Amino acid sequence: MKLATTTLVFCVAALLALGMVMLYSSSMADKGMHFLVMQLLWCSVGLVACVVTASMDYRMLKKFAWPILAFAVILLMLVLVDHIGFKIKGARRWFKFGGIQFQPSELAKVALIIAVAWYGDRFQRQMTTFTRGILLPSLLIGFVLALIFIEPDRGTTILMASVTGTMLLVAGVQWKFIVPPVILALMGLAVSLIRDPMRSKRMLAWLHPEEHQMDVGYQAHQAMLAFGSGGWTGVGLGNSRQKLGFIPEHHTDFIFSIVGEELGLVATLLVVLAFILIVSCGLYVAYRASDTFGVLLSTGITAMIGFQAVINIGVVTGALPNKGMPLPFISYGGSNLLIMLTAIGLLVSIARKARVRESATSEVIEPEAVPSPQLS
What strands, in cross-sheet order, belong to the sheet with 91-97? Predict the structure, then answer.
């Protein structure tokens, strides 16, 4: 467990360091130090939260699972209210306090994972039934995701549906119960995409990229050009051309393309390897967790980080349709970075308790030596 925890912390630290360097490199031409300073401030707060959650007993969250979720739901409702929620590009997802923005859906991610972990732990013997296993948790999950969906934020909705579905499967829900809701959700998503002109165009641009290089598929096309010009070793740190207005979201959702252009294929593969190691360590922590709550909590956190990284990298490389989602620990975004570091702290806390269990069970009491009888 010590090796897994050390590897996890090292990979996160490496991604954070790379993120700070690439954030400054990608934004220095137009924003200078602004994004870097803001990200450093959020990172400082996130590291404090990481240390606090790593030091605490994660089992305390059982007592606060519902209050945390209720607080997150209230924030999700408030962000939809005019003059309270802050609107950017047609989406009302943020609170704005001076120059600081906070996205309540990021808090809702962790709150929902904690609530589902509590539910799976509380009703672990009844998770094979339809009512306890799929109906009640689906109503809870669906309510929270509906609030995120209407912001609109379809990416986070799909992400958390996948994460919570994974957690329910680990908790013991049978496939025959979980498949029908998944089919209904996919049908509903398809209908919403058809009725949304902007997202329909994104799907068409993904299916026929050559026909949409200069309109909806422009950013994805420029990202591929960045990867192509980077080659194996890149054009050099700070020498990217695509960040000079060709890739609009070069410091957030598409920062991975700047990594590929400036540092090359080798660096991008190392980033992918770091996420694979983080997911592997998270799954190992889940496997060795001391209780069901820890198993489900670590599974949810690991799935959240892994799925989000897969979606971001898939979008930037053209493997998935364009959907705005930051790359964990690297992309600019304070609230996402704060929540991700807090989640890593929870993983370390679960690992600490697992180590305690290991050390307790590994102690073997040696029998006292009995002197052998002497023959006269």
Answer: 86-88, 91-97, 100-102
